């Protein structure tokens, strides 16, 4: 029997989380420059998310990290808007409703931290992710907000939390 659980990131998860994110980005054909692939934070996600109003959650199955997502203040609009960050799942995690569960976990955390809205950047060909965001109530924006540094992400969405 599979034992799936969503929990907060721990220091020993760092390597697995970085591998999940980079593996999925390569699988999706995402540019390595101007996206999460080159973020220095990927190599020490635990420390990165130990700041105020930030948290990163992982999906673990039988001791293996198979996905994750985080919430952090959106740079430039920190007081009221958070950003859903680095939400990626390996193929074995997909199609099990984990995306919706992770989204719920992240948005509950965002609300508990006093954020009013949540922002996402994505790419046109990440269709499954965009469908999940739409089902979760995210609406498209015409241009980016904040200062994420992910200039190759060309789709932007936001929702009230």
UniProtKB/TrEMBL annotation:
Alphabetized UniProt keyword annotations: Transferase
GO molecular function (one): N-acetyltransferase activity
Entries under PROSITE patterns matching the protein: GNAT
InterPro entries assigned to the protein according to its UniProt record, in alphabetical order: Acyl_CoA_acyltransferase (IPR016181), GNAT_dom (IPR000182), NAT_camello-type (IPR050769)
Superkingdom assignment: Bacteria
Keyword Transferase: yes
Domain N-acetyltransferase: 4-161
Entry protein name: Acetyltransferase
Organism annotation: Salegentibacter salarius
């Amino acid at each position: 029997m599979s034992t799936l659980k969503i929990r907060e990131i721990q220091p020993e998860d760092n390597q697995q989380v970085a591998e999940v994110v980079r593996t999925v980005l390569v699988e999706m054909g995402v540019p390595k420059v101007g996206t999460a692939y080159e973020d220095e934070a990927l190599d020490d996600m635990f420390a990165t998310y130990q700041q105020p109003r930030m948290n990163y959650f992982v999906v673990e199955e039988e001791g293996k990290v198979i996905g994750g997502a985080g919430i952090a203040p959106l740079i430039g609009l920190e007081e009221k808007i958070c950003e859903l960050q680095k939400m990626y799942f390996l193929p074995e995690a997909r199609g099990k409703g984990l995306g919706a569960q992770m989204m719920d976990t992240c948005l509950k955390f965002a609300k508990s931290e006093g954020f009013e809205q949540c922002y996402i950047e994505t790419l046109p060909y990440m269709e499954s992710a965009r469908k999940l965001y739409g089902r979760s109530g995210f609406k498209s924006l015409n241009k980016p907000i904040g200062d994420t540094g992910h200039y190759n992400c060309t789709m932007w969405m936001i929702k009230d939390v």
